[in-house]
Amino acid sequence: MIPRLLAILVILGSTAAGPSRAATPRARDLPAPARSALARAGTLVNGPEAVRGYALLDSLDRAAHAHADTTLLLATAVSRGGHLTWAGRAREAAPPLQWALPLAEARGDSTLQVRAAMWLGYALVALGRSSAAESLYVRQLPVAAAIGDTLHEGFMHKGLAYIRLLDGRTREALAGFGRAEPLLRAGRNSFGEIDAITGQGRAWEQLGELDRARATYERVARLARENKRPQNEADALNNLGNLEFVRGDPAAGLRAFRATRALRQRLGNAYDIVLPACNEARALAELGRVTEAGATLESSAGSRALPRCSGTC
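Structure (tokenized):
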């Protein structure tokens, strides 16, 4: 299936790159087989067959080089960089994105430009280069807004807000998360929308507005249930539990932590149970139920995981 698809791609790709075109080809001008192959690579990379997904991207790269198809090379680089960033491999992700961004800008391909900028910003933050990421987002946000790319505009606003939250510019962060939320909702990305609302909760908590933070986390949990995102719901419940601790109610915190743990147990990843188990034990200890606290830790994920214990997500 893939070789046949690539054969069609090579034929159409060489036509798209031919000198008879008056305008520089852009990402939206890629032939259907190329778009299909990129989508297929994304599906594979984000699933259990990631190796096959990256191999398909390598094949697309080779086809693009063979036919001097810069548009396909750009699209493949941005796709690869985005998937690597999402997988937590920022050091590998940055080079293809740094190559693609100025070239997409020079060619007037705003679609690929804003995609590359969004992912590069996230990679830079992961690499500890938040100032560079902030400057990048500030420069590229008007481009995303001009072409009506609400999805990437929303993610860049969210990225900016996250940087400012960590930097202590909490009011700016709150405003940024607020701008990101409707954009990501318009872009039909429930993960991003929920994450932007979670950021607002963190900002309210940082500002000492605990009632507003509580209401925000409750909203996150509700939206996560509606959108069938149990991991987001579990995170919201964990945040609620920590908030109850700050408010001086460890019993309410215990209920939230237990709900978090039950959700993560259903998801089937034993490693993810460690954090809520530690928090549950913390609440039990605070309530004077020390024996139960120890039993909770011992029954969670084993001694190898215990060093990860922490009060927050």
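Residues 240-313 form one domain. DSSP finds 15 helices and no strands in the chain.
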